[in-house]
Design a protein that fits this description.
homodimer; alpha+beta; six-stranded mixed β-sheet
Chain lengths: 149, 149
């Protein structure tokens, strides 16, 4: 007897691994298997709008993957905040075109996972272009601030 | 007998309220009373570098508050992810100079709190300028994407 088994993630780390794997493979169904099927999930892509709800998030990844270019995405310098049902990974993403010796873009990301009845799922992904400390210091005024723009 | 009593936050919401209150009052000691005293706390101000550790985060708020301008900061459109020891608030911050009829800047923020032995404390604040959906759609190419810059 054939059954459709939903992929479950036993830990937040498994879900995080599946997220970056799906991202690199530009695989929409694998990506959306990581996200909680909820109207309250939140996704902010670098310099993109704030998207709320599974369908809006799905649409955004579909558009990103439709570009055709597969990316190499490596998460590093992870800080972990682990609870029994909510877990957060704050990382620096090193993003570059796959297979090319191209310069790496750095992105700050805060990933939030929740333990659902279907295992650990992503409920929030907040990504923004990373500013290098040196560059920030070279600017006037020097401190990083809540600029009004 | 006089004792120095550390302010405790009984819930993540109390800590979140104290964070925005300290922010508006530009009160450094009140702000840092919200943060966990840890080398692993993470803070990304809008268009700023990624700061890690209590001292780096303290320094950044000191610089922001040293500017002298007090801001009105209202968090809205909150999405909550609540665990027993880790909680997340994803909000839109409406930031404007206090007391002025100035235009409001919109900032996306993801705030992470952890239950410590000293109550709920902030362990991560990730803020980035918000892009309006209309504006994103008017751009070419239209989808929000992982742009390499």
């Amino acid at each position: 007897m054939k059954q459709t088994v939903k992929k479950m993630f036993a830990t937040a780390d498994e879900a995080e691994g599946a997220f970056y794997d799906a991202f690199e493979r530009a695989n929409l169904s694998a990506m959306m298997a990581v996200w909680a099927e909820s109207d309250d999930v939140v996704c902010v892509h670098p310099q993109g709008p704030r998207l709320v709800g599974f369908e809006a998030v799905r649409e955004s990844w579909m558009q990103i993957f439709a570009g055709g270019a597969t990316l190499r995405v490596r998460a590093s310098e992870q800080r972990r905040f682990d609870g029994s049902s909510v877990a957060v990974r704050a990382v620096i993403e090193r993003v570059s075109p796959a297979g090319e010796d191209a310069p790496v873009s750095l992105v700050c990301a805060t990933n939030v996972y929740e333990l659902t009845t279907n295992g650990w799922r992503m409920v929030s992904h907040h990504a923004s272009p990373m500013v290098e400390p040196q560059r920030a210091q070279a600017e006037e005024p020097p401190p990083p601030g809540y600029t009004l723009h």
